[in-house]
Structure formats: structure tokens, C-alpha cells
Design brief:
Layout (H helix, E strand, L loop, with lengths): L14 H8 L3 H8 L7 H14 L5 H8 L4 E6 L5 H16 L3 E6 L5 H13 L4 E4 L18 E3 L10 E6 L1 H14 L6 E4 L5 H17 L7 E2 L4 H12 L6 E4 L2 H13 L9 E6 L12 E4 L2 H17 L6 E5 L2 E3 L8 H5 L1
Parallel strand pairs: 1-2, 1-3, 3-4, 4-5, 5-11, 6-7, 6-8, 8-9, 9-10
Antiparallel strand pairs: 10-12
Amino acid sequence: MTDEIVTSKPKAVVAMDVARAAGVSQKTVSRVINGDPHVSAQVRDRVHEAIKTLGYRPNRAARNLVLGRSRTIGVLSVGSTDYGPSSLMVAAEHAIRSAGYTMSVVNTLQGEPETITAALRDLMDQGVDGVVVNEPVGVFSLAPGGIGELPLLSLSGRYGVSSNEVVADADQAGGGRQATEHLLGLGHRTVHHVAGPQGWRSSGLRHDGWADALRTAGVEVPPARFGDWSARSGYEAGVHLAADPDVTAVFVANDQMAIGVLRAMTEAGRDVPGDVSVVGFDDVPEAAYLPRALTTIRQDLGHLATFGVGLLVDAIENPRQQDRREDVPVELVVRETTAAPQGHRRA
């Protein structure tokens, strides 16, 4: 005869067990778990101690049902692999998961307002608690307040489509001004600009900062050339700029395009910074290790996304506190691609 060993699965700890251990009702345990502010600190401490001692794990699905939340944050993006959008996406995902939320991403490979709006409605249909709008998004084909009170975080300026909107944005226009003022301060008569694609908020704001700085200084505002953020488009713009001997300073809207401009200048035999000074934007990791280390505008994208998600979570969990906006400063990093123009140096 063979002895049989019978094993039984340990009984799961339930809320009633926590209630007995803490000497409170099961309803009080539920109120503590759900963050009810009307529970005394003493009772709350007893309940949390019982939860820790017993190893109780609240049923998240049931808790979310009580709170009317999905614990999911939607992210609207076009799935760009460019440095700025991809860095924001990685940092936002980490911040969302660290805050105890899951993430649902809807990508759209087109920038038309109707396509963007359809992607936003897809997230709303999923019942997300809030939405992060990641660059590049230009506009929505929605009336102001079109998504009601659904909390929305924009990482690129205010859209006005939610009554509970949060904005966390780097000072894009200020960065454009800093880059331009730096070049003017070196003695360049004017500054040419290679802008990002039209329809992108960051591109438009950097362009505005450049133009404003030139107007304030009372100097000529030359026509801008537009790229698509790629090094190739920067190179193509750089070929035209290199052919003009009057061009001595160029502000480029991102570092990838600036790398293309540098290549075009080298091929044309124009020395950087001897003949032409170049400033980029972003401070990508490679910027400091180019043959001529790139002068650029640094924005802390990781901090921007993390800070913004924190504001969004606060908007979700404290909906009465509305209309939050924070502008994160940027920094000019001077390296080896800018100098006074030759005539100015001789003088």
C-alpha cells in the first residue's frame, strides 16, 4: 500500500482577515485601500500594518471598479524613431508604470487632424484614465473641450480640447532665442535657420524664437529652410547655405539636421567654425563626440516626460485641481562649432 501525500494550497488572505487582525470592519479596510481621506491616521496605520503582516494583496480589478478607473494611461504618438519623440516615449512609459498605471499606445503614421483625432477617440473608447500627447501632433479636429474632463497631458503646448489639461513643455521658443542670441553676440550680422517640418509645434516654436531674436536685434530675418528632422534633410539645406558666401551663422532645429549641415559645409570647403558657425538643438549623445563637438541647446527629455506624467497622474487622482502648466528651461551648451566671424576676429 502506498502512502499518498496530500498537499493543500494555502488559503489566500482576504479583506476579512485584514479586518479581524486590525480590529475594524471590512468596509473600513476597503476605505483605507481606496485612499478615503476620512479614515483616522490611527486606524489607517493599523490596517496597513495588518496588510503588511498578513501579506494581503488587494484585488486591483475590484478596486478599479469601485473607483471607476482603468488604471491605464493612453499615449498618442506617430511612432517616430527620432531622438526627441522616442526619448519622450521611453521616459513616459517608465514614469507611467512607476506610478502604478499601465500604458496603451495608439500610433498614427500621419499627421492630419482627422487621423490624430481618430486615434484619440480610439483611446477614449478603451476607457483610459488620461492621455499623453507625444510629439509630433499638430492639431486636433475637435472643438475646444471636445473630450470633456478626460485629463490630457501635452508635451508640446496647450491644445484646449480638455477642461482638465496638463502641459509640460521645454522652453522651445526660448531655446531658439538663446541659440540666435549666442550667434549674434559673437558678431554675426544675421543667423540663418534650418527649421523642422511645418505642422510640428516644437519646430514652429523654435522658428519663432529665432525670428523674434533677430527682430529684437534689428537685423535681417532671412528665409528659413525646412527639413524633416533627418540628417539627410539637413545636408540638403546645408548644400544651399554653403553656396552662399554671406552665410556665416546657422541655427538648426535639431542635432541630426545639424550633423547634415556640418557635412555639407565640409564638402563645400567651408570651415566650421572658421567660416560658418552652427548651433543645433536637443544635445543628442553624439553631439559632444563629433569631429567638431556641436554647440547646441540641451533639453532634459527624461525629466520633462517624468515631470509631465506626475502632473497627469495628479490630474487623474485630484480632478478638482485643473489647468496645470509647467515650462521646463533649456540650456545653451557651447562647444566647438561656434566662433566670431572672420572679419569680426580681425577687427
